[in-house]
Amino acid sequence: MFPGAVESTNSFLRDNRDRYEPFTVVVTDHQTKGRGRLGREWLTPQGQGLALSVLLPLPPEASTWVPLLAGAALVRALRLEGLSQAELKWPNDVLVSGKKLAGVLCEGIGKGQVIVGAGINLSFEHAQPPTPHATSVFGTEALKWEVVDRILSNWLGHLQRWSQMESDLKITGAEEIVAEVLGTLARRVEVWEVDGTRWTGVAEGLNQQGHLLVMPERSETLRVVASADIEHLYQ
Ligand code: BT5
Predict the structure, then answer these.
(1) Which class for 127: exposed (0-12), middle (13-18), buried (19 or more C-beta within 10 A)?
(2) Cα of 117 to ligand 1 centre, how many Å?
(3) Largest alpha-carbon pair distance within the chain?
(4) CA distance 43 to 40
(5) DSSP secondary structure of 25-52
(6) What is the pLDDT of residues 72-121, one digit of tens each?
(7) Ligand 1 pocket, CB under 6 A
(8) N or C, fewer C-beta in 10 Å, the chain?
């Protein structure tokens, strides 16, 4: 745990990877330049949540499943602590009642290693949420460190077990683990392509790479969504 602020735990671990063993965890409660996907920002104002990154050894063929598995592991850990509404939104968000509680950012660094980063909102007791669509583990109540400890050790335990499955990490196994907590499945979604195009459809499943299969409205041909953003539509 950092005694002070760090710009980004993912960047820190990437820049210092040669000094650390696999499964090293870097964690802070104050990240000043947190990164999201596609150049976006992740906010970790001091005292509201945690930013952490894990150096994970993984076989390259599992790489597209890593963010999904990491998110699924976090959902499982949260559910065990009573957040039964926690669900995964493809590809990397943990939502509770439609609001974002956590985000995952995975970055391959070669040599069969990946950095798995997660930003987790813990408590908004002392300040406003960082964005209007954010939610947290404890809401406006004080955070309980023993619960946080259990969530983190559970999450890390899942990651460690899955990464040690190595090449035995069969795609079907990964798909099952992810599908169990993926709130996106069978839901109407709006797809936001990287070029700004938007379209709607129903999320029908995942392909062998973990990409989302969406049936566009008024179409009978499934489209593969690999790197776009999606929004869950609730009507
Ligand atoms: C993510 O990106 O959700 C991945 C976030 C990963 C952050 C971790 S923290 C540790 C490690 N080190 C890093 O530098 N990063 C990782 P994305 O899907 O692109 O979502 C970003 C969007 O989420 C922003 O554009 C905001 O709308 C929203 N957002 C930012 N901070 C938030 C927060 N604390 N809670 C909820 N939503 C937030």
Answers:
(1) exposed
(2) 10
(3) 55
(4) 10
(5) EEEES-EEEEE-GGG-EEEE-TTTEEEE
(6) 999 999 999 999 999 999 999 999 999 999 999 999 998 889 999 999 99
(7) 8-10, 31, 34-38, 40-43, 51-53, 92-93, 100, 103-105, 117-119, 121, 130-131, 134
(8) C
Chain position carrying tokens 């999320």: 203
DSSP 8-state code for residue 139: T
Token pair, residue 222, equals 């499934």
What separation in angstroms does the CA of 152 have from each of 44, 56, 212? 17, 15, 27
* 152, two tokens: 């983190």
Tokens of 112: 């069969």
| pLDDT tens digits for range 34-87 | 999 989 999 999 989 999 999 998 766 667 889 999 999 999 999 999 999 999
- Residue owning the nearest CA to atom 16 of ligand 1: 117
- Site to probe by mutation for ligand 1, drawn from 25, 42, 66, 100 as the one with most ligand atoms within 8 Å of Cβ, is 42
H-helix segments, the chain: 9-15, 66-80, 145-164, 171-179
